[in-house]
Amino acid sequence: MSTTTDFQSIDFGVSQEHPTIMQTVVVTVNPSSLLSDYAKAFVEEAYRLNYDKAKMVDLKAEEVFNYLSYLLTKRLQVVEGSCPDFRNLKLLMIPAYFQYVLTLIGVCEDRQIGLKFVPNLSSKSEMTFEDAVSVSEKIASFEDELQLVHDAMPRDIAGDINFMSTALIGEYVAACRKLDHPMVTYCTAFMDMKLQEEATYGVLYRRLYGDKNVIAQALIAEKRKLL
Where are the strands (E) in the chain, listed by range? Predict the structure, then answer.
């Protein structure tokens, strides 16, 4: 009796791959202390670079924080397809680094691991568009001093897969896939990204990229690079 040693050559014709069953992972964006620190640093830098103008404009950290929270709310509305006043947003001036972070937030799929990442916002801004324009005009006063962009609210609902597949697990930035660049880990800490169902999906986030507190200290130390 002959024996078969090459078992990998056997094909019964019933083992074809079927379409991936996608599971949705909701990742919550939390405007928190680091965003507040960024707003404070933004105003401090405006005063450092042009004290007389900053004194005249009277830009405050609290209103910058509220304005950034408003932009976050609008970005989530765009992603959800529920932003009827999107065309008005082209009037707003946005800090360049924050605009970059906004482009990272959106819906993403990784079919290799069968996960769809969807953003959520922990709390929505109550700021009106008129108030947002008022703060934007103050910020626009520093176009020559700070890094700002105009008509730059992202239109695409898609986000960045590297960013959307990261979250804070405990005090660590973790990911369920290998990241292309460490910058997204800074953005994860900056946006305080959390899993809505950590008990269910947290076990998938097995790649650790750093302690949130250490990243926060680095962001604060190098804050001028982001302004």
Answer: 23-29, 93-95, 108-110, 115-121, 148-150, 166-169, 172-175, 194-195, 207-211
